[in-house]
Write a structure and sequence with these properties.
The structure is a homodimer. The first copy, chain A, has helices spanning about 15-25, 40-50, 55-60, 75-85, 100-110, 150-165, 175-200, 205-210, 215-220, 225-235, 240-260, 265-280, 295-305, and strands at about 10, 30-35, 50-55, 65-70, 90-95, 115, 120, 140-145, 170, 290-295, 310-315, 315-320. Chain A has about 325 residues and is an alpha/beta fold. Chain A folds into 2 domains: about 10-140, NAD(P)-binding Rossmann-like Domain (Rossmann fold); about 180-280, 6-phosphogluconate dehydrogenase C-terminal like domain (6-phosphogluconate dehydrogenase C-terminal fold, Orthogonal Bundle). In chain A, the strands form 3 sheets. Chain A has a 6-stranded parallel β-sheet with strand order 3-2-1-4-5-6, sandwiched between helices. Chain A has a 3-stranded mixed β-sheet with strand order 7-8-9. In chain A, strands 10-12-11 form a 3-stranded antiparallel β-sheet. In chain A, helix 4 (about 75-85) runs parallel beside helix 5 (about 100-110) and helix 7 (about 175-200) crosses helix 11 (about 240-260). The first copy, chain A, starts with 8 loop residues before the first strand and ends with a strand. Chains A and B meet through helix 7, helix 8, helix 9, helix 10 and helix 11 of A and helix 7, helix 8, helix 9, helix 10 and helix 11 of B.
């Protein structure tokens, strides 16, 4: 007998994140069905993992109460189209790393959907179901976008399911999410690429790469990510990425100009390092206390803006952890 | 009875790198003496670790055949001064991450020294003897600077000792070293600081830091490093750091401008990601073959420029590994 509090979930796309979610849901006892556009992936998942694999989106969402879109950003439009043709009426979320373009597709193609944009903050420079695992998403920060009152009940339902998987639900508006992700993921990917190319360039590149050690290894790890995926993120989130690239460039220019003026760094340039150390040494911040929060858009959104997250969703309130 | 092929080594400075070297040398059976300006560190090392600890540089180098300067860049001048006053005549090397300023100090203060500048490529965002360990330097790439014929015999002697510790000796000129280290260490530290500050800035900083995951964690790890140390590296290596910062900034500007022009990234901007992926996926490069190399400045330097390293030093040749 299945636990009636666990909804039937359809995961559309069984790559790194979708595949990991599929396994995590199965591990937690959710009745879960999966779909992937790639027949070989469907076969692999069906043969080796729990949960049911379907041959079409229509079939996958037929019995689902919660459907999760887990395909690359450029494929989302077609998936939404097929969900619409299936007359699906359950909760709908996704795991795509940019939220505004997905919101827009939903408004255009499926305006009546019970839509809550999502983004689990876990990944890898690797791709595909072969790289997925039930542990990838365990305990991760999971953004769920809350923009307006009409979404509140659906948001709380999706948030409850995600908290029950052991993840920290971070409320944010679509705009807040996209700006934050530019800061902590998209721009870091761009910087990793720029650093890798710089290190390797010209006749001096071979020596530089042979002496490169820990700081290069970690700073450039995500430069090995699939370039089309990273380019698609940057394109889909271009306004925020441009703005955050500007902020990074301004600091690097400040440091460069101070070094040119040298020999000693000006205090303002030296302060770049001091500020960064203070921030980085206290990251990640632990939960200092938990608190009951009213079930309103403003109160829940305030938890995210304060650096907190939702750990429990009740009928009349939510429980938040705050740093 | 000590192994007569293992020289008596003095390690001056018992912080992260000096302390790790002290332990590694002891582990390999070298008779090793240590010195640190900090009395509490001397006491800690003397009580808990093998090897002898001295209360002065004069005493530490008295019996040494190889002396290693392992103090921060700003303290090297005074240490060289004390080595000079001790009438030390053995081999002299260091582990400081910038080489041109140290070369200059040696020329000014100790022109007759048997000097071979060195730089083991291993570190941590932590500092001090408490963070050191015999494993930190095991198997690491270890640059030894070879600039001119007069150094060749001393270079080969130091290189033989370092290869016998299990490290890969990478030959480079002082200028080559400083440019390469700007690329793979100093600029990455600057970028980590800029990224950390950008992520945390303003009212949106708390949310960004709470959703930050693996790519932020790795990209900013070294932002937790001691700011005065990083600033001192950049100051001491300002010409190379400025030049490599320019190269990174140019790519970030290219990407930003392409995103502004959007919606689709120009092929040249997209190529930043493709090139970086190709480079990063094949890094670090393994040794493809080993070869005998003539014991000349040109031949040995060519190994480093080709991305290779020295694994063995013999009377009339060296053995190199090449990727």
């Amino acid at each position: 007998m299945r636990n009636p509090t666990l909804p039937r979930v359809a995961v559309l796309g069984l790559g790194l994140v979708g595949g990991s979610l599929f396994q995590l849901l199965h591990h937690h006892g959710h009745p879960v069905v999966g779909y992937d556009v790639d027949a070989a992936t469907r076969k692999l998942v069906a043969q080796h993992h729990g949960g049911r694999v379907c041959d079409s989106i229509c079939e996958a969402v037929a019995q689902a109460e919660l459907t999760v879109i887990a395909v690359p950003v450029w494929a989302v439009g077609q998936v939404i189209d097929e969900i619409g043709r299936a007359d699906y009426s359950g909760l709908l979320t996704d795991v795509v790393s940019v939220k505004a373009p997905i919101d827009q597709l939903i408004r255009q193609q499926l305006p009546a959907a019970r839509w809550v944009g999502g983004h689990p903050m876990a990944g890898s420079e690797k791709t595909g179901f072969v790289a997925s695992s039930a542990t990838l998403l365990a305990d991760c920060p999971w953004v769920l976008c809350l923009n307006q009152l009409e979404q509140l009940d659906d948001w709380c339902d999706v948030a409850r399911h995600i908290t029950q998987l052991g993840c920290r639900v971070i409320p944010a508006t679509t705009v807040e999410h996209d700006e934050a992700v530019a800061r902590i993921s998209h721009v870091p990917h761009a910087m990793a690429a720029a650093l890798t190319n710089t290190a390797a360039s010209g006749a001096a590149g071979a020596l530089a790469l042979s002496i490169a050690a820990g700081s290069f290894r970690d700073a450039t790890r995500v430069a090995a990510a699939e370039p089309n995926v990273v380019a698609a993120w940057c394109e889909a989130n271009s306004v925020a990425v441009v703005s955050q690239l500007d902020a990074v460039i301004a600091q690097l220019v400040q440091l460069r100009d101070a070094l040119r003026t040298g020999p000693e760094l000006a205090a303002s340039a030296r302060d770049l390092f001091s500020r960064a150390q203070r921030i980085r040494q206290t990251w990640p911040r632990e939960a200092a206390h938990t608190t009951r929060v009213a079930r309103t858009v403003g109160a829940i959104g305030g938890v995210g803006r304060a650096g907190g997250w939702i750990i429990q969703v009740e009928q009349d309130h939510v429980v938040a952890a705050l740093p």
